[in-house]
Structures are given as structure tokens and as C-alpha cells.
Design goal:
The protein is mainly α and 203 residues long. The protein contains ten helices and no strands.
């Protein structure tokens, strides 16, 4: 952390010497973001864009800061502007896809993640994000299908089998942030006959 503070001090000195250095504001914002000072980062990105309105990296980075706050719509607005200025920003497609995923817009999320991979086939984060997409969308389909089965099934045995497992799966979905799920947990749910049903919301 001490090194980061020194970097911030260096960027601040550069800005003091030349207040029109948009890149210095943008870079200082990145360091503030790394330190968890997201509002401070947004202020720096705002200053960078006030000097250079056509700086796509600053829009992307400001979008990231809004994402950390959970303001995904504002994040997407910033990512849109970054991609308008530079349609080849593969990492921005990935970031926007992640925001869409958090909002439940799976079609838009997959489109952006795939586009990121098309632009940069070696971008590991995009493959990881796409895996999360497939897990999350599959779980929702599974829960929906199971719920329908419970409603229409005349078999009490089927209902007794699926209902507790759907409940357990819902609890896991609630408690694991961003659906960072373990495949072994998911698979075991539907193959273990007895397990406790206990759901605790994270606070």
C-alpha cells in the first residue's frame, strides 16, 4: 500500500506541474480504485474526461468504478461511450458483459463476452466470465424447469425429490456472490438423498 501511496503522490506532483495531463488523472484514478477509493477514482476520471472528452480508457475505468458500487446501469453507460470511441476495446466488452450479467440480461452479456474473445482469443478473464454465464443461466433454467415440474407433476415422489434440492440450490445461489459456484456443489445437490435445508442470507 505504501508503494501505491507513493505512486499517487507522483501523479499528484505531475498534475501540479501540468494540470492539463488527462492521463495523469486517469492513472491516479486507477490507483485510487486499486486502494478501494472508488469515489476518489471517479472524481479523477471526471477530471480526465473534462480535459480530454475522447479518452476511452477513462470511460472504461469509470465504468469499472461504478460497477464496484453495484451501479451497473451507470457502468454500462460508460462502457458504451468507451466502445463508441474505440470499438476494439476487448476488455471493455468483457466489462460490459459482466455488468449485463449482474443485471440478468444474459443475451447481451453473452454477446459482449463472445465479442471480447473474438477480439482477444487469449483473454482468460472472458473465458472465466463465459463459464459463469453458462453456470448462472443453466441454474436459472434448472430452477424454472423444476418449479414447473413441481406444479404440474402428479407424482408425489418427484415433488419430494426436486423441491428440497431446488431449495438448496436457491440457497447456494443467494449466498455465493456473482454465482461463483463450484460445479461439484451443484452436481451433488441432485444426487444426495439426505442433507439439511438451511439458508442464511449474507449481510
Amino acid at each position: 500500500m505504501g508503494n501505491y501511496q507513493q505512486v499517487i503522490a507522483d501523479f499528484s506532483q505531475a498534475i501540479k506541474s501540468n494540470p492539463e495531463l488527462a492521463d495523469a488523472y486517469n492513472n491516479r484514478g486507477n490507483i485510487r480504485s486499486l486502494l478501494g477509493d472508488y469515489w476518489g477514482a471517479i472524481i479523477d476520471y471526471n477530471r480526465a474526461l473534462g480535459i480530454e472528452p475522447n479518452l476511452p480508457d477513462a470511460y472504461n475505468n469509470r465504468g469499472n468504478a461504478y460497477s464496484y458500487f453495484g451501479n451497473y446501469r451507470e457502468a454500462i453507460s460508460n462502457y458504451n461511450q468507451a466502445l463508441k470511441l474505440n470499438p476494439e476495446l476487448f476488455f471493455t466488452y468483457h466489462n460490459r458483459g459482466a455488468a449485463y450479467l449482474e443485471l440478468g440480461d444474459y443475451e447481451a452479456a453473452l454477446g459482449d463476452i463472445n465479442r471480447a474473445i473474438e477480439l482477444q482469443p487469449n483473454f482468460a478473464n472472458a473465458y472465466e466470465r463465459r463459464s459463469i454465464y453458462f453456470i448462472k443461466s443453466s441454474i436459472i433454467l434448472l430452477i424454472t424447469s423444476g418449479s414447473i415440474l413441481i406444479k404440474i407433476s402428479s407424482s408425489v415422489t418427484r415433488v419430494q425429490y426436486f423441491f428440497p434440492r431446488l431449495t438448496k440450490l436457491s440457497c447456494i445461489c443467494i449466498n455465493l456472490p456473482s454465482f461463483d459456484l463450484k460445479l461439484d456443489k451443484i452436481s451433488r445437490i441432485f444426487f444426495i438423498d439426505k442433507f439439511p435445508i438451511s439458508c442464511h442470507m449474507k449481510t
